[in-house]
Structure formats: C-alpha cells, structure tokens
Design goal:
With about 350 residues, this protein is of the alpha/beta class. It has a single domain, classed as Metallo-dependent phosphatases (Purple Acid Phosphatase, chain A, domain 2), CATH 3.60.21. Helix content is about 20%, strand content about 25%. The protein contains six helices and 16 strands. It has helices spanning about 1-10, 30-50, 85, 90-95, 165-180, 230-240, and strands at about 15-20, 55, 65-70, 75-80, 130, 135-140, 185-190, 220, 220-225, 245-250, 255-260, 285-290, 310, 315-325, 325-330, 340-345. It has a seven-stranded mixed sheet, with helices on one face.
C-alpha cells in the first residue's frame, strides 16, 4: 500500500479511491479491528496528508459475532450488534472519515420486521458519493450487514456477500438521476468491492455464485424477493440503461487486474436462466483491481471469459487521466514501475 500511495502521489493523482479489503478482518473484537485499521492507515499516512483517500468496505472489513459448536468449530458468523456500537459498519465509520450523504439504513423497507426500532446497521460513511472536477464517484457497500455464513446457513439471517439491498439500490437510482442532471458532471464511476462478473477466485460468490440465483439475504428468517443475479441485473440496468454518464464500475475482491467491456454480445447468464434478461443499451466497463498485495488469483473459465481483457496478477495501480470528455486509464506496477496496460475509456 505504501508503494501504491507513493506512486499515485508521484504521478500527480488528485485523489485515491480504495474500495475494501484493507485488513485481514473477520474478527469479533472491536479493538483488534481498530488495530488492523491503524496499521493500514500508517502505511499510507505520509501521502494522505497531501491528497484525499476515500475508503469503501469489503468483505474483510467484517466484524461480527461467531457461534461455535461444542467442539469449538466455527459455525454461524453474523454482523456484530448492537449495531450502533459493535457492527462492522460503525467501527468502519469510527476509523475513517467519508462523506455523510448516503442512505440511512435498510430500516423501513418492506422486509423490516419492526418499524418502531432499528433492525439494521447504518450506511453512514460506508455508502456515499463525491465529485472532483467533472467526475463523480459513487461508493457502494456490497458487504452490508454481512453474515459470512448466510450463503450456507440461512437461519441466522443477514446480508449476502455481493448483494446490494433495496434501500441502497433505490438511493443509487436517485443519486444517478441527480448526477445525470448536474451540468458540471460529465463522467460517473460507481465502485463496490465485489465484481458483477468475477474472473478469477470468486466465481463461487460475488454477484454470480456459480450462476445460482437462489442466493440472497435473509431478513427475520425469510428470504428477500430477488436473487443475486436478478439484483445484479437491476443494478446494472440503472448504470447502463438509466444513465449516459456512467463510465463503468470499479471493483476489487479478486486478487488480480482485468477489465471487461459490457455489451449485448457478452454472455452473462447460466444455461437455462428462467428470469428476464438484461440487455445493455450502451457499453459500460467493469474494471477490477484487487492486486494491491494479496496472494494472486489465477483466471477462471466463465461465460464472459472470452471478453475479459488484460488479465494480470502483477501488483497494479489504476490511474485515470481525465481531460474534458476524454478518459484514459493507465495501469502501473508499483514494484517495478512498468506500464501494465493503457486503455482509452472515452
């Protein structure tokens, strides 16, 4: 991280966006979580005094309660509560300073079991947007209310890795509309930790789950209406079909770098998928960079693999050069300083 921050600063970056997996996490101690955050912040401290760093949540930022069997084997793992003092979301907000212009929480949605009390953690400082010049960045949390065990043990309820829940999705829709009508904004990027289309290391989850649309969050013991692939499509529909300004999504999670240009020609469904299918009215990009120092993941064979470009397991820093209506992305290795890739996005 220190090398990445140093290179970004040397290249004249105006700000840096890092979206999740700063730490090992998966902890049940708030104090231990803060210690890991402290160590990450120390690595970039010489540089974030001089340029802003905006931070989003990933799955490794999870902090929760672990249930074990009589043999001590880990079983269910859910987000920590009380949510206002012990959740992953509130500890993240204590550790970092981000804008506070996001949604409130998932309370008061149609699944809320009790409208008289808070049943979900806050989105404060983990979902937000900001602008710089003619660029807007919308930061989402695809690991909200995350229960790592929920994909296999649904009885506990909790959020699913990769899932954008209802209130957050509606906030995204309204925010994109607002930015579409902002004459000062030409380009919008949306970032969340989990790729919509994993390419190496996370085909078992992210927004794919081996093509299993049955995966979804559970609230008060009941599944929500939309499965992970249906929700992925609703999300992408907002970005591609309800917007002309969204350039693409910036993701991580998988320990590699690659990009994918999403067009109607790209196959994005499992065989026999029974639900309505999304069609892109214009192309948008998915740019994945999880190559910030974690052990690398090799490429998998997936329906869209033939369209995946520039797959690399080198450590990588993505720099976006914006000049009016044009955007060029240059990708450098912060260890060797070689240019990995260069792409004209607009």
């Amino acid at each position: 991280m220190k090398k990445m921050a140093a290179l970004a600063y040397e290249k004249g970056a105006h700000f840096m966006q890092f979206t999740g997996d700063m730490i090992n996490g998966y902890l049940s101690s708030k104090e231990a979580q803060h210690l890991e955050y402290f160590n990450w912040k120390k690595s970039i401290e010489p540089f974030w005094h001089y340029m802003p760093f905006y931070i989003g949540m990933g799955n490794h930022e999870v902090l929760g309660i672990v249930f074990r069997d009589e043999n001590g084997k880990r079983g269910a793992f859910i987000d920590g509560f009380p949510y206002e003092t012990q959740s992953a979301e509130v500890v993240f907000a204590e550790a970092f300073v981000n804008p506070e212009n996001g949604p409130e929480s998932e309370d008061n949605n149609k699944y809320d079991p009790d409208l008289e009390q808070a049943d979900f953690p806050s989105y404060k400082e983990n979902v937000f947007y900001y602008t710089h010049g003619n660029v807007a960045m919308v930061v989402l949390n695809s690991n909200y209310w995350f229960a790592p065990s929920i994909s296999k043990q649904t009885a506990t309820s909790g959020g699913l890795h990769g899932y954008i829940m209802d209130n957050q999705l509606e906030w995204l829709r309204q925010t994109i509309r607002q930015l579409e009508n902002d004459r000062d904004i030409d380009h919008i990027f949306v970032t969340q930790h989990t790729p919509a289309f994993p390419n190496g290391g996370h085909s078992k989850d992210d927004m794919w789950y081996h093509g299993d649309n049955s995966k979804r969050p559970y609230v008060a013991g009941k599944p929500v209406d939309k499965g992970i692939i249906e929700r992925r499509d609703e999300y992408l529909d907002i970005l591609a079909n309800e917007s002309q300004k969204v350039v693409g999504i910036l993701t991580g999670d998988e320990h590699n770098y690659n990009w994918l240009k999403l067009t109607p020609e790209v196959p994005i469904y499992p065989d026999g998928y029974p639900h309505e299918k999304l069609r892109f009215s214009r192309p948008i990009y998915q740019i994945n960079n999880g190559a910030a120092g974690a052990p690398y993941y090799g490429q998998e064979v997936l329906p869209w693999s033939a369209f995946t470009q520039s797959f690399s397991v080198e450590n990588a820093l993505c720099l976006f050069y914006v000049s009016g209506e044009q955007i060029t992305m240059k990708v450098y290795n912060p260890d060797t300083l070689n240019l990995i890739d260069e792409v004209e996005l607009r």
